[in-house]
Specification:
single chain, 2 domains, 9-stranded mixed sheet, two-stranded antiparallel ribbon, 13 strands, ETF_b, Rossmann-like_a/b/a_fold, Electron transfer flavoprotein small subunit, electron transfer activity, ETF_a/b_N
């Protein structure tokens, strides 16, 4: 029986984000919030593992009270329980402070609901895009960590070992390691299922467990929120739009078009720049 924790984040829908041209900041008003889709792939794989090996799934989210909606969505998909970690003291957290709070949350989950075997996070979030929180949690909890996971081959429950495929720039790495482990999920890992009607009905009635700073008596207040966030954004700006002139090459056939293209290129500075020799025309 596995106890799997899935860390999720509610983020602005990146397809709806706009930039204020005067302030160069994100316009969040009217932008719908969604579950970070990499996190949903982590949840989907947790559901697959539970179906294979049995166990339970706890979903945790650090965020403002409206993030309850994101947790309800996870319940509708099949998670067993959901925990919202919310407090004004957590506001303004960077990846360092966020990983600290989530690590403390996972510790508390293990103490109250049984030892944690597998932790899933997305490879990154749509709004932050750093990919730092998952590894940060693993380091704080001294977990084995396997990042950029595109396939979970399986778990040997007797030996308590897991085998996965990691997607690297130059290929795929097959890795085996011991539980407990933290995995960061890629979208190639699986296809996220649709919530069934019974799941949606359960989610509509479900009330997530809510933990605040008061529920963490040993929490180091210097490591949370703005105080615990050394990251400084020195400057942000919107790149200037560049106009590109486009010209269509006309011609009756491919050879005619190719000759016209060569003539056009020869009228630029490219031949001099790259030392081209003019080709003989057929």
């Amino acid at each position: 029986m596995l106890h799997i924790v899935v860390c999720i984040k509610q983020v602005p829908d990146s397809r709806e984000i706009r930039i204020d041209p005067k302030t160069n900041t994100l316009i969040r008003t009217g932008v719908p919030a969604i579950v970070n889709f990499y996190d949903l792939h982590g949840l989907e794989e947790a559901l697959v593992l539970r179906e294979k090996y049995g166990g339970k799934i706890t979903v945790v989210c650090m965020g403002p009270p409206p993030a309850e909606k994101a947790l309800k969505q996870c319940i509708s998909l099949g998670a067993d329980q959901a925990i919202l970690v919310t407090d004004r003291g957590f506001a303004g957290a960077d990846t360092l402070a966020t990983s600290y709070v989530l690590a403390e949350t996972i510790k508390k989950v293990g103490e109250e609901f049984g030892p944690v075997d597998v932790v899933f996070t997305g490879k990154q979030t749509l709004d932050g895009d750093t990919g730092q929180v998952g590894p940060g949690i693993a380091c704080r909890l001294d977990l084995e960590q396997l990042t950029y996971v595109e396939k979970v081959v399986g778990i040997d429950m007797e030996k308590r070992r897991i085998t996965v495929h990691r997607h690297l720039e130059d290929g795929v790495e097959v890795v085996e390691t011991a539980l407990p482990v933290l995995l960061t999920a890629l979208k190639e890992l699986n296809k996220v299922r649709r919530a069934p009607m019974p799941g949606m009905l359960k989610a509509a009635r479900y009330k997530p467990i809510v933990w605040t700073t008061q529920d963490f008596p040993n929490l180091d207040r210097s490591k949370i929120g703005l105080k615990g966030s050394p990251t400084i954004v020195a400057k942000s700006w919107v790149p200037e739009q560049k106009t590109v002139n486009t010209e269509m090459i006309e011609g009756e056939d491919a050879q005619t078009k190719a000759v016209s293209l060569v003539d056009k290129l020869w009228q630029t500075d490219l031949p001099t720049k790259f030392g081209w020799d003019r080709p003989a025309q057929a």
